From TrEMBL:
The keyword DNA-binding does not apply. This is TRAF-interacting protein with FHA domain-containing protein A. Transmembrane segments: none annotated. Residues 49-121 form the FHA domain. Its main location: cytoplasm. It is found in: Cytoplasm. InterPro entries: FHA_dom, SMAD_FHA_dom_sf, TIFA. Belongs to the TIFA family. It comes from Illadopsis cleaveri (blackcap illadopsis). Signal peptide: none annotated.
Length: 186
């Protein structure tokens, strides 16, 4: 038997990819304490807290507008399955947290969808869960976005938008050209 055949089966690890954005990130450098670009192991029974207090939070954001403890992520195994997930809880008394436009007040919590956008204040965080099998720990992989994750809503264009070959092909197939009609002519 080869050493490959005797080796234990590797289990995949659940990884939570978090991409952060703030409009003032260049000047204020509020993400400088985050371990960006590298995977980090977190024990399954630990709660991953985000906030400004580096003593209480595993992930510290250097911004006085961020609560001491802003929110937490808890890893868990779903009942009667081997599937794992994350629960997000708002721990800020002053700032509401939104997850995919669901507003969470203080101490409200929900299951984190496999792909979601978390917002509070001017912060936008894209959270993407990569499923795995390991039960003892999960990994986080933090990134920085160069552009806003949520694009601001723009006013609709005032220029007409042409239809895509619906009317011309319909009328050509009938051998007629389009004509205007008054609604009273019907």
């Amino acid at each position: 038997m080869s050493s490959l055949e005797e080796a234990e089966t590797e289990e995949t690890v659940t990884c939570l990819h978090l991409t952060f954005y703030h409009p003032g990130q260049e000047e204020k450098m509020m993400f400088r304490c985050l371990n960006l670009g590298r995977r980090e192991q977190v024990r399954a029974d630990d709660t991953a807290k985000f906030g400004r207090d580096s003593g209480a939070c595993r992930y510290s954001l250097l911004d006085t507008r961020v609560s001491r403890v802003q929110f937490s992520l808890q890893f868990y195994r779903k009942l009667h399955t081997s599937e794992c997930g994350f629960e997000i809880k708002n721990l800020s008394k002053k700032t509401k947290l939104t997850v995919n436009q669901t507003e969470l007040g203080y101490l409200n919590k929900i299951d984190l969808p496999w792909k979601s956008v978390i917002c509070f204040g001017d912060y936008q965080i894209l959270a993407e869960v990569q499923e795995g099998e390991a039960m003892d720990y999960f990994e986080t992989h933090l990134h920085l976005a160069e552009a806003p994750i949520l694009q601001e809503k723009c006013l609709p264009s005032l220029q007409p938008i042409p239809e895509k070959d619906i009317a011309p092909s319909f009328f050509l197939s009938q051998g007629k050209s389009p004509t205007e009609m008054d609604e009273n002519d019907l």
